[in-house]
Specification:
The complex is a heterodimer of chains A (about 120) and B (about 140). By secondary structure, chain A is mainly α. Chain A is built from three helices and two strands. A two-stranded antiparallel ribbon of chain A has the order 1-2. Classes of the chains: A mainly alpha (about 120), B alpha+beta (about 140).
Chain lengths: ~120, ~140
């Protein structure tokens, strides 16, 4: 976890990575035999919460949030050609992910504004 | 790797879907073609899609969509008895293109919807990138 930006720096990385995965699903919505994939935020967060701090150069790296595990989605209605992408649901998840990305961006921005205020001693 | 990859992935899908739309257009345009020989008539064309990289599990790899090729439909052309037609053979038959209009319309709608959703992906990603670029400027 970043000491300045907190969890939100890592969350941004996770959201950007998930965005890629969801875009891949949508791009392959008409590809036969393609299996939709996704990664779970809570799993990535748990990986981050193991509480390991790196205080020495020879300590092992704590897990990065962006390296969430990809998992195959369980489709509600798989199509006849073996494709498991449900475009509408994927689009909804994509939108949700974009909003979460903006939320994290907002927190990071606020953090930067706070620090700047503390450094310069005046607001904005 | 991230974010810029989104543009590559969605871009590959956009070009694949527009190719599909093109093929639908040429199928519908040649729907009423007839010929005197069964092997001379227009055959419906369809694109074959494949995920650009099928080794799943590697997060760092962006998997766009690739057009493997265009295939011609193997359904036999429709025989039609029309002895007055200048192209008709000695039995009075002409052969019409094997384009299935229902199939083509369904294909067209599916392609245009996929195109739209990928365009939305590009737009959202662009929006988020611009916001990220202005990080810390208040």
């Amino acid at each position: 976890m970043d000491p300045i930006l907190g969890v939100h720096g890592s969350a941004l990385l996770f959201r950007a990575a998930r965005m890629d995965v969801l875009a891949t699903n949508l791009a392959n919505a008409d590809t036969p035999h393609y299996k939709a994939r996704d990664m779970e935020f809570s799993a990535a967060l748990d990986g981050l919460r193991t509480g390991m701090l790196r205080t020495h150069a020879r300590h092992i790296e704590p897990p990065q949030m962006a390296a969430g595990d990809l998992q195959y989605r369980m489709p509600h209605q798989p199509s006849l050609d073996g494709n498991t992408v449900e475009s509408d649901l994927e689009l909804a998840r994509y939108a949700e992910n974009a909003v979460a990305y903006q939320a994290s961006l907002l927190f990071v921005n606020g953090r930067i504004a706070t620090l700047r205020q503390a450094l310069t001693g005046r607001s904005s | 790797m991230t974010m810029f990859g989104t543009f590559d992935v969605a871009g590959s899908a956009l070009s694949a879907q527009s190719l599909r739309l093109n093929l639908t257009a040429s199928n519908l345009a040649n729907m009423n073609n007839v010929a005197g020989q069964p092997d001379q008539v227009y055959r419906a064309r369809h694109a074959v899609f494949r995920a650009a990289d099928s080794s799943f599990g590697d997060l760092m790899k962006d998997v766009g969509v690739r057009v493997l090729g265009v295939i011609e439909s193997t359904t036999p052309p429709v025989e039609r008895y029309d002895p007055g037609h200048p192209e008709a053979d000695e039995q009075g038959l002409v052969y019409a293109a094997n384009v299935n209009v229902m199939e083509e319309m369904a294909n067209m709608i599916s392609a245009s919807r996929s195109y739209q959703s990928n365009l939305e992906v590009v737009n959202t990603a662009k929006d988020l990138m611009l916001r990220t670029l202005s990080l810390g400027q208040s």
